[in-house]
Write a structure and sequence with these properties.
The structure is a homodimer of 251-residue chains.
Chain A (H helix, E strand, L loop, with lengths): L9 E3 L9 E3 L2 H10 L7 E5 L5 E8 L4 E10 L7 E5 L4 H13 L4 E6 L10 H15 L6 E2 L3 E2 H6 L7 E4 L6 E2 H4 L5 E5 L7 H9 L3 E5 L7 H15 L14
Parallel strand pairs in A: 1-3, 6-7, 6-12, 7-8, 7-9, 10-12, 10-13, 11-13
Antiparallel strand pairs in A: 2-5, 3-4, 4-5
Helix pairs in contact in A: 2-3, 2-7
Chain lengths: 251, 251
Amino acid sequence: MPEFPSSRTRLYVDQPLAVGEVIALTEAQFHQLKTVQRLATGAILGLFDGVNGGFLAELRLEKKSAVAVVTSQSQILEPLGELTLLFAPIKSARFDFLVEKATELGVTRLRPVLTDRTQGDRVNVRRLRETVREAAEQCGRVELPRVDEPEKLVRILEGWNQADALYLCAEAGAALPLHRASKPGRGAVLIGPEGGFSPVEFARLRSLPFVVPVSLGPRILRAETAAIAALACWQAIEGDWQSRPDTQGEA
Amino acid sequence: MPEFPSSRTRLYVDQPLAVGEVIALTEAQFHQLKTVQRLATGAILGLFDGVNGGFLAELRLEKKSAVAVVTSQSQILEPLGELTLLFAPIKSARFDFLVEKATELGVTRLRPVLTDRTQGDRVNVRRLRETVREAAEQCGRVELPRVDEPEKLVRILEGWNQADALYLCAEAGAALPLHRASKPGRGAVLIGPEGGFSPVEFARLRSLPFVVPVSLGPRILRAETAAIAALACWQAIEGDWQSRPDTQGEA
């Protein structure tokens, strides 16, 4: 059993993987492996396609391109418990950080939410997906969280499956601490925008039977802090923190 | 009861506060209040000195300076449960982020730790304290976490109070999830450097009776993610997440 996580390079590839396949790497991957990481032909990579699990592959470098020959399967894709983060987009650096952390913490779906006070309606979903991919490569996941197009809060609430709790990280008002309010099943955490929900939104949310207001302690947390704290607690109590394998980073 | 946190400007001042005192604000504070926030004479500020609790004060702007006249006390300083974060310094932007989040999550002491694989021995403690102050102003604390000078891991372990658990966020090996391993009392969370602890350090840590290895789930977390997740869970289970007041941000 290795005492430390392997530092093997892991790459997401956008095509189905199977043993024996020869995978053409992208120009960006070629550059990363050859110039930045200075890997040579024969280096072992971890690959995953988001569907078939994790694989080991051997790098073959050409002058201006690279392929990876898939040699063995190293990890089965086990479906994660569903955990959705619904969040109003925030300022850029903090937003990237939030998305990276949410991916590391095992969310399976990211839903950008447009609220009355959302700053900047234009969410760069492409960049969001890029951040998600990089974080998944880094943290050992073999699937990618789904990233939705931004949607208005009212629409999301109208279409909500009433059987699923929606944990509202409440800035004020009566609320139980998350770890006492949560219940098993699908998890969904809703974080408001930096200026908070509007009074109309807040009243609407509090009137809905599936919305469970939860508290994250006595301090005023920034949106991304609240999201990360809530996701960590949910995973600890209801999610997959019980299930860490003894070895890590093998694909 | 206000439904939303007040957006009142809060400032830390480096002198004892009491009702009736006239506090000379710094040039940076003057600039912030007048030019950035465009406040006028008569605006109500929240002030705290880290010792005497929270106060309300009235701003008086002059041409090139400002004072705040303390009008009332709004918050008592209640001692927080002790929660220490011991962390190996990491790259700059992630480091600032970690320190900000740790402050928001209520750590009372930050101890930079020098390990065998610590990148960059020179920790900018002054900048660290600045980040802590800003985060405390923003999140509604009326005291500041203590920030230690960097110290070597071996020294810290030698001087450790054996009665206090030190939760080691373990990258691999046997470990209980944090929320099942934790116990009431003083909390202390240790996060390794980006390259992990050296094998010698890791063996040493695992041999010490007060070191409690804890798991943070099946994924490989970046150092700052691990720290934030661990602190949030500790506060939820053993710390002050039970004690959120119904109103917030009043000083």
